[in-house]
Design brief:
about 60 residues, mainly beta, three-stranded antiparallel β-sheet
Amino acid sequence: MAIIKDSVLIPLDRQLFIPKEGNMTMDNIIIETDGEYRLFEKDNYIIVKNDDCCRSIKVTIRTKD
């Protein structure tokens, strides 16, 4: 597993944009977090949105092997 982002804080109601590299999709990444999030896929990005009601969340994103 390759780490894409390690221990990144996403503030309340904000988004983290991850540029797609190669054949990256939502199905081949693993998201570890300490809060609620929503995941979106756009043309060139995968978007992780903090959906927690009251605080920032810490996110680590890895690829599946």
